[in-house]
């Protein structure tokens, strides 16, 4: 009897611990800041010393991952994760100038997003994005006449492309990949050698320079970069082209920033557009729309460079010791106002 009673006690304790863990997880996921701050205790992993010695980059030369021992500075496939202090910005600037590059930056400003965010995005881009390099901005909007006039430095151009106004904001998000694919196959692809694609509801806060350039570039999501893989919000519906099975996926990437060469981005946008088209034919819509398909693509085709959350940070998370110099900051989200 004593043994049975002890087993019952342990069983009750076990389930209480399970319920407690689930409660903490719920608070962590759905907004209690005190619980969210506990994620700093989740280890990020360490780049092996042998791999550190081999980390080089076409724009920054030999990287210095040992300068940031508190964060993960490389991937399992040998790509660098770029943190402040792991590169020399002067070397990156000099290399980009020697290559005589033109760098594209695309942004969609549709509906109320144009008035709310576009001017600040462009003005801060002129202050911080690829300063000293040739840049061509491509603004996609249904109202070209409403695009604000921004003073541009020499060698920098602004082009405005008209797009159709979609009925739902989700459709704007999902149509983006198709529109980008066509633009990359047209004038944008002829003008630029490397292109970054960004969301408009953010603004530049620090230098976003050639250290970010590579053949294909993915951005770690600032809300998920410490999470274990089983918690990451991948698409899990196996019927979707964006689906990742349990155990698949490396990191969770943010669709607010991605980039690469024109050829690489043509492949990425074609994959995502095709996946979205297939889902629509089946009456499906991925959980996080084009971002879900982007994560599937980068699982199948590993990025050559990964940007740390410093390159696209959410102030709502608060300060983190490892976030030394944020490059992009999320603007306040007003979904109820902007998406009706």
From TrEMBL:
It is found in: Membrane. Keywords: Glycosyltransferase, Manganese, Membrane, Metal-binding, Signal-anchor, Transferase, Transmembrane, Transmembrane helix. One of its GO terms (biological process) is carbohydrate metabolic process. Signal peptide: none annotated. One of its GO terms (cellular component) is Golgi apparatus. InterPro entries: Glyco_trans_6, Nucleotide-diphossugar_trans. SUPFAM superfamilies: Nucleotide-diphospho-sugar transferases. Binds 1 Mn(2+) ion per subunit. Mn(2+) binds at residues 199, 201. Its cofactor is Mn(2+). CDD domains: Glyco_transf_6 (cd02515). GO terms for molecular function: alpha-1,3-galactosyltransferase activity; metal ion binding. UDP-N-acetyl-alpha-D-galactosamine binds at residues 108-110, 113, 199-201. It is a single-pass type II membrane protein. An alpha-L-fucosyl-(1->2)-beta-D-galactosyl derivative binds at residues 221, 291. The active site is at 291 (nucleophile). The chain crosses the membrane at residues 12-31. PANTHER family: ALPHA-1,3-GALACTOSYLTRANSFERASE 2, GLYCOSYLTRANSFERASE-RELATED. Belongs to the glycosyltransferase 6 family. This is Alpha-1,3-galactosyltransferase 2. It comes from Panthera pardus.
